[in-house]
């Protein structure tokens, strides 16, 4: 892997779900606390299917060339996906009458209150405060969700950017181009940080520098040679990423 020139990077756009916060453990815990039945369902499988439905919806919306109108509210989408699982999925439909409306609302709101990985906040603080880089979210989460999560998890971002601002979702090019425009920087001066390779591939195609942080059960833990066509930096975590930029 050729060492990337990071000297011209002025800002970081950073994915949130999985990259900054451990959504999987948090949602599994929320499901376990909210659906206290015997025999217990497979909470990990339920969380995974819920997230998988979200990912499939994002891929569908991102593939549309025109701006999405009306733009889907992520809370509504999460609720719809949860209802589909609890009411129609053969593995979980036996829970349909057990999980009432108020519980489903509470579970949907759990996506606003996810805890960060241990390295996230100190690493982000170093990147911003010590190294002077602008740190911004670039997430498919809507603005209100990201603000709630920033406050709950005390994420030290300088800026909140959401795909909602651009009328589509990652990995549509409009998101990356729009982020560069709002940051007032050329794409080659921005580093996209994510644990999802499809996000980095799209960012690279739009001229960004890219940094990969592996997280448990999110994407590959070890990259193949072909991945380095669109991955410029590999960091163990955000603290390590700050060390790389410091050198």
Automatic annotation (TrEMBL):
Q: Name one GO molecular function term.
A: hydrolase activity, acting on acid halide bonds, in C-halide compounds
Q: Which SUPFAM superfamilies match?
A: HAD-like
Q: Enumerate the Pfam families for this protein.
A: Hydrolase
Concerning its family, UniProt says: Belongs to the HAD-like hydrolase superfamily. S-2-haloalkanoic acid dehalogenase family.
NCBIfam families per record: HAD-SF-IA-v2 (TIGR01493), HAD_type_II (TIGR01428)
Show the PANTHER family listed in the entry: HALOACID DEHALOGENASE, TYPE II (AFU_ORTHOLOGUE AFUA_2G07750)-RELATED, HYDROLASE, HALOACID DELAHOGENASE-RELATED
Tell me what this protein is called: Haloacid dehalogenase, type II
Q: Which organism is it from?
A: Lichtheimia ramosa
Taxonomic lineage of the native organism: Eukaryota, Fungi, Fungi incertae sedis, Mucoromycota, Mucoromycotina
């Amino acid at each position: 892997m050729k060492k990337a020139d990071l000297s011209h990077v002025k800002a970081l756009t950073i994915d949130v779900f999985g990259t900054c916060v451990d959504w999987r453990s948090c949602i599994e815990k929320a499901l376990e606390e909210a659906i206290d039945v015997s025999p217990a369902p497979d909470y990990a499988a339920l969380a995974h299917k819920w997230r998988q439905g979200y990912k499939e919806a994002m891929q569908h919306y991102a593939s549309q060339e025109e701006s999405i109108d009306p733009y889907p509210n992520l809370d509504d989408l999460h609720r719809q996906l949860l209802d589909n699982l609890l009411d129609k999925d053969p593995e979980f439909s036996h829970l349909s009458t057990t999980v009432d409306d108020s519980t489903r609302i509470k579970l949907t709101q759990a996506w606003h209150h996810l805890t960060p990985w241990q390295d996230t906040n100190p690493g982000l603080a170093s990147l911003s405060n010590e190294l002077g880089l602008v740190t911004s979210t670039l997430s498919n989460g809507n603005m209100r969700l990201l603000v709630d999560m920033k406050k709950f998890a005390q994420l030290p971002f300088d800026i909140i950017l959401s795909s909602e601002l651009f009328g589509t979702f990652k990995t549509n090019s409009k998101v990356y181009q729009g982020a560069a425009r709002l940051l007032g920087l050329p794409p080659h001066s921005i580093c996209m940080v994510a644990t999802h390779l499809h996000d980095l591939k799209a960012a690279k195609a739009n001229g960004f520098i890219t940094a990969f942080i592996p997280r448990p059960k999110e994407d590959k833990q070890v990259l193949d040679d072909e991945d380095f066509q669109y991955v410029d930096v590999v960091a163990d975590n955000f603290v390590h990423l700050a060390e790389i930029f410091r050198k």
